[in-house]
Write a structure and sequence with these properties.
Blueprint (H helix, E strand, L loop, with lengths): L5 H15 L6 E3 L17 E4 L5 E4 L6 E4 L5 E5 L7 E6 L5 E5 L4 E5 L5 E5 L15 E6 L5 E5 L5 E5 L5 E5 L12 E6 L5 E5 L4 E5 L5 E5 L5 E6 L5 E5 L4 E5 L5 E5 L12 E6 L5 E5 L4 E7 L1
């Protein structure tokens, strides 16, 4: 029987003790949210986004791929049938446009508030690693000046930076575990200072870069970042998908609270994939295996 090194055991014990001291976030799940039209159901649900009105947009892998709900969870409208091959990430930019990452379609699509397509990056069903192609992109994030970043993703192992008007600016990263390398860059977010936070999913770490891709730091104590958002008051909310929990962090990487546990019941999680935080501070979590989005409201 192979014995583990003492240094490894000490590190694991330190992490376990640290996690046992993380406080629980004071939230309660709303088991009746949302209300779908009769006969409708979500399928695998990878993405969710919230606008300034707290209308919630759910991105899933069945019919009616983008579904909008009002704050009470009532159905408003839906669209997207035939547009997306395999829905993945969904986010609003700073001007209220909705952006979708289609990982098997190899596309990133910008839509206005009515759902009309306003910009397309990549070529549908055409994978690549050029300035205008992706290989299974996963997420989008927006800098204060309107530049945006795409984590690209399952096939490639890089982050791609574009100007507000969709012009290629820069790219960085390759497959690996060294600083600045990725093993499935699955989520991306930007703070007010322009620092870029990349969820390096299978390396079980968050990496932080400056606006041009210079490595700044990494956090290896936060689990596996599947979904990452930064709120206007600059707290980080993160889906730790492998551990089926939600973490709240500050910009130093300190864990301020944790929510959720593995399971199928309301309030439990199974492959928590992406998340969004609304103006009410409610947390909306999209799950792959449970085919749903859950609303956790502050108590």
């Amino acid at each position: 029987m192979r014995c583990l090194p003492l240094s490894f055991l000490a590190t694991a014990l330190t992490l376990l003790l640290a996690q046992s001291n993380w406080p629980q976030l004071n939230y309660a799940v709303d088991p009746n949210w949302p209300r779908l039209p009769a006969g409708w159901t979500f399928e695998e649900t990878p993405g969710v986004a919230v606008d300034s009105r707290e209308h919630v947009f759910v991105f899933h892998r069945g019919p009616h791929s983008i579904v909008e709900f009002d704050p009470a969870g009532n159905h408003v409208r839906s669209w997207g049938d035939g547009v997306f091959v395999r829905p993945h990430g969904l986010k609003f930019d700073n001007e209220g446009n909705l952006w979708a990452a289609d990982d098997q379609g190899h596309l990133v699509v910008k839509m206005d508030s009515s759902g009309r397509v306003r910009m397309v990056l990549g070529r549908k069903n055409t994978k690549g690693e050029t300035n205008d192609t992706f290989n299974r992109p996963t997420d989008i994030a927006f800098a204060p000046n309107g530049d945006f970043y795409v984590s690209d993703g399952y096939g490639n192992s890089r982050v791609v930076k574009f100007s507000k008007d969709g012009r290629f600016l820069n790219t960085w990263g390759k497959k690996g575990a060294a600083e600045g390398e990725f093993n499935l860059p699955h989520a991306v977010a930007v703070d007010k200072r322009g620092r870029v936070y990349v969820g390096d999913r299978e390396n079980h770490r968050m990496q932080i870069f400056d606006a041009n891709g210079k490595f700044l730091a990494q956090w290896k104590h936060v689990g596996s970042p599947w979904g990452v958002v930064i709120t206007p008051d600059e707290f980080i909310y993160m889906c730790d998908g492998h551990n089926n929990r939600i973490l709240k962090l500050n910009l130093n990487g300190d864990v301020l609270g944790v929510l959720g546990a593995h399971g199928k019941l309301p309030g439990q999680l199974d492959y928590s994939h992406h998340l969004a935080v609304g103006p009410s501070r409610s947390i909306y979590v999209a799950e792959i295996k449970n085919w749903r989005v859950q609303k956790f409201a502050p108590k």
